[in-house]
């Protein structure tokens, strides 16, 4: 069996090498327009990116210094001392912050930051061993490595060491730094490490299914920069190692602990469902898409398609959060999407953005960007406070509480012992310009509706596209097309699922009522008939300077209902307007949120509140609210104003109740729940 498997692996590897060696390599049919070619000028994202640059990144570097993460590198360089942080993957917080700071330098050039990074990169270089190995948890004192690291290099890679995880983040950071600054300092460190990894792992060499995926994505990025086939073939080799672990017993009641937690329960091509630790999983699925695109591997493609389908039909929160189960930070069973205990690690949202972008690039379907957008505007940015320096590691869907049983959690924190999420946000946010447009020859895709300008080339013709809008608060989108000379091409404008009566590209969620408004598109003021392709309006014409495309997206407040198999959401609705999912928080609703009922016929008013929560579109309606008397023995309803805020903005005003899902009838109200009483008593 093992013999057959390794022959198959070798075949896969050879085809990978062949693909890599032929001058015309296969790749994603659609390429993103690089972040270096898109300038944002909007009121929603730009202030967030500014905060990321001015607050998050400096705070992150400062915390890397203050918590001894930087010191670990200094000690590794000196080959003496004692590893001074908790986890062997703490090195990655530095890499991720460098990655974010690199993207951010394109947006906001900053000589001081650039120089600081140069100095930090020198420390990283000094910590690298002569053969390329870079892992402070061992190099500081190889005779006494971190407990998770194992006595020798790589021996605990599958379980705990994170050696290849550290490498993967190093590669991602190095490519961003190189692309943003043109400097090869970090890239050279990464290449030296990757050469060691490729020399160590492969057919006839060492084999492992990397314990925490990301090295695969990182190697693919290095392959794109260098064209070196070993980087791609080693990425594929790592994918192919999954499902071979001898210690996995599928019959054990705790089988996930040894198998699916690591996506190591089956060969990747046989995996059909989103399983295990969500961040690991979604980095793996991103790499599967990358390798499928670069090698044309149809089995890999079929597997990642099927896994995506499973996530979107059964395992995705309405906010785009993934990884429902706290124990193992993992995907739950089908339809297991509890609200109060929702884990939804912020890093999983980051990973989901990466994955959906790749799925879009593979297939050119709007539904992938619909999910990406859902994650961006909801479950991702809920992970960072409006101050830019307080974070959620996990993103709850409901805080159940009462005056008599106050909960202390959750509140945002500045940093965590395991601080993967803050630094992951720090790197994702400033890369956002790279998600706005994409291109495939004469097809130019407008995926995100963020004001700003891009300069691209169609054929040899420079084309500038400028978006002016006030998204996500208003659905009036304007695109000014400015080719240097009249040029024929297709502008594909994404018609978001939510604007086409589709709450989700599956039956996991649906809108309770169809929208009465329709999308309309005009060019230079005249309505146009357009064809649609895979969820895009195809605007095909010879574009001339200053052609103006106007798209109107319906922006009613919609009630969303979940598939009846999602237990916690039965009899409840969520609120959505445009891509933004709402919640009710204690601060706006007389100290409570769990007592509010939203009957089907509820109508909402909307008002932009510039002073609130950095500017939000607020929703209000008059609804019944359940009241209990002081003795908790009698119950009544009163009518009161329900005020809803975007989910992403919750937990910026202290702690208290919050809910995304609202009961429609009295029978579905969770009264002062026994559960919350028990949980409090049990603490
Ligand atoms: O293992 C590294 C990171 O720590 C994971 O991505 C997070 O889920 C946290 O467990
Ligand atoms: Zn995290």
From TrEMBL:
<feature type="domain" description="Non-reducing end beta-L-arabinofuranosidase-like GH127 catalytic">
    <location>
        <begin position="37"/>
        <end position="433"/>
    </location>
</feature>
<keyword id="KW-0732">Signal</keyword>
<dbReference type="Pfam" id="PF20736">
    <property type="entry name" value="Glyco_hydro127M"/>
</dbReference>
<dbReference type="InterPro" id="IPR049046">
    <property type="entry name" value="Beta-AFase-like_GH127_middle"/>
</dbReference>
<dbReference type="InterPro" id="IPR049049">
    <property type="entry name" value="Beta-AFase-like_GH127_C"/>
</dbReference>
<dbReference type="InterPro" id="IPR008928">
    <property type="entry name" value="6-hairpin_glycosidase_sf"/>
</dbReference>
<feature type="domain" description="Non-reducing end beta-L-arabinofuranosidase-like GH127 middle">
    <location>
        <begin position="444"/>
        <end position="555"/>
    </location>
</feature>
<protein>
    <submittedName>
        <fullName>Glycoside hydrolase family 127 protein</fullName>
    </submittedName>
</protein>
<keyword id="KW-0378">Hydrolase</keyword>
<feature type="domain" description="Non-reducing end beta-L-arabinofuranosidase-like GH127 C-terminal">
    <location>
        <begin position="557"/>
        <end position="663"/>
    </location>
</feature>
<dbReference type="Pfam" id="PF07944">
    <property type="entry name" value="Beta-AFase-like_GH127_cat"/>
</dbReference>
<dbReference type="InterPro" id="IPR049174">
    <property type="entry name" value="Beta-AFase-like"/>
</dbReference>
<dbReference type="GO" id="GO:0005975">
    <property type="term" value="P:carbohydrate metabolic process"/>
</dbReference>
<dbReference type="Pfam" id="PF20737">
    <property type="entry name" value="Glyco_hydro127C"/>
</dbReference>
<dbReference type="InterPro" id="IPR012878">
    <property type="entry name" value="Beta-AFase-like_GH127_cat"/>
</dbReference>
<dbReference type="GO" id="GO:0016787">
    <property type="term" value="F:hydrolase activity"/>
</dbReference>
<feature type="signal peptide">
    <location>
        <begin position="1"/>
        <end position="20"/>
    </location>
</feature>
